[in-house]
Design a protein that fits this description.
21% of the residues lie in helices and 29% in strands. It contains six helices and 17 strands. A hairpin with a 2-residue loop joins strand 11 and strand 12. Bound molecules: uracil (URA). The site of uracil (URA) has 8 residues, from helix 5.
């Protein structure tokens, strides 16, 4: 049993406040009766819901692509600003898929699909994560060779990363793990310092360049299908 507004929001009829307005306007029917309020609890699996005469298909899982700004923590609760504060939709049960540091920006999947998140984050699946890295000292050929060979720092081994030069002070780095501060530690081990870090891709999900920092949008059907097409 779920609240009507939650079902409608999950089915992407609109945001929680938009669907409340639709219900108020008498445009939503549940089993043939006009719904009077959006806080009624109904069986999402059996109820026949229509908005303006169009059948609503309930979706258990929701998926949003967020362009994470700096200053937000990847957590589901806490005092400091958390990434879920940026999501206007009812985010009960939603969580960020993976952790970006507070000062890291860019692609973050927000979902309530635990099994998919598990697949994407499992170290065994080696899902690629691509970052644009800014750093304060130009890299030498030797540094690049180390990055590409894998690095051990402070007793932790980091697997080989894919390096692509962008400029003297920035590169694209693709990693397949997701260790705590991985990229910062790789650069620290070289006596270098990361000055900016932005994730632009996770597997084949690419950050939508039209999303400004702090903005998000639902995943498109084909983006979701690609993400799910993971080795199981
Ligand atoms: N590596 C880091 O050091 N920080 C991140 O947020 C992501 C990867």
């Amino acid at each position: 049993m779920l609240r009507l507004d939650r079902i409608l929001a999950n089915a992407r009829v609109g945001s929680r406040s938009e669907v409340k307005k639709l219900v108020k306007a008498g445009r939503v029917t549940v089993n043939g009766e006009v719904a009077k309020t959006s806080d009624i609890r109904i069986d999402e699996n059996t109820a026949h819901i229509e908005v303006d005469g169009q059948k609503v298909i309930y979706e258990k899982y929701v998926y949003y692509m967020l362009n994470k700004p700096a200053g937000y923590i990847c957590a589901t609760e806490g005092k400091v600003p958390i990434v879920l504060d940026l999501i206007a939709e009812d985010y009960k049960g939603m969580f960020p898929c993976g952790r970006l540091d507070k000062d890291t920006t860019g692609l973050l999947l927000i979902t309530n699909d635990g099994p998919l998140a598990h697949e994407l984050l499992s170290p065994k699946k080696h899902v690629e994560k691509e970052y644009i890295v800014g750093f304060d000292t130009p890299l030498t050929e030797e540094d690049i060779a180390k990055i590409e060979a894998g690095i051990t720092f402070d007793g932790v081994s980091y697997k080989p990363a894919k390096y692509k030069k962008i400029s003297e002070y920035s590169c694209s780095l693709t990693i397949r793990e997701g260790r705590y501060h991985e990229i910062k530690f790789i650069f620290k081990s070289l006596g270098n310092k990361v000055t900016s870090l932005k994730r632009i891709r996770m597997k084949n999900l690419v950050l939508d360049p039209s999303l400004k920092e702090g903005e998000y949008r639902p995943l498109r059907a084909e983006e979701l299908a690609d993400l799910k097409a993971i080795d199981r």
